[in-house]
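Recap from last week: sequence in, structure out.
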Amino acid sequence: MSATPHHLHALAAAWSLQAALAALETAAKDAIDGALDGSRHGDVSIPSQVFGRRHGLGGHGDPVADLALGAWAPARPDPYAAALGGILRELDPIAGLLPGAPGMDPVTRIRLAVPAMSALAAERTAAALTRLDQSARRTLGIGPDRHPLRGPVPPTCPACGARATLHVQTAGPEAAWTVVCDGTRPPGRPHQPCLCAGAGCGCGMEGATEGVAHIWPRTSVLGAVAGAAPGPTN
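Predicted structure tokens:
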């Protein structure tokens, strides 16, 4: 099945969510280590969805620490572990319906299934993963993994023609990076998102879909705006 904009958004959201979950897991593990060695004060409880289970988010659960902390109940839930547990509870039933190797983490299972999805399924998957990713990043206090696309001159959006509005989404391996346009905010007017016009749209995307926020594989945009590269966030 061809990669429509819905598929690209779903894949980008999956890579972004995987990075956010890995950061949540690290923060939750730090909470365990701090509670056990006394460097963090106050009781900390860790949801069973997080520890004592093996997954591919960057490590595996520590059932010993889980048991030790469980003995302190009732305790104040660690916010990172609570967020991670809640997101995993939402992902597990979805991932369980999809093919994949035993023990594969839910985000990877969903991401690998995206290319075979219908455009409608990919659209719904992108929306669900984006919502969970934004929730994880709010808990962490971090923004999206992305940088402005820079070049010898400010690159022009292939669709709307605006300059300096393109950003590279950098979650995941470089081959999976995508480019999006922030749209424009004319003086005295509301924000104008950069949306596809469908067939004949200047975006040049295969499977152009009316009303969908523009997104391109990074390599296709770099070919259109020679010399452009992701730059540091201002």
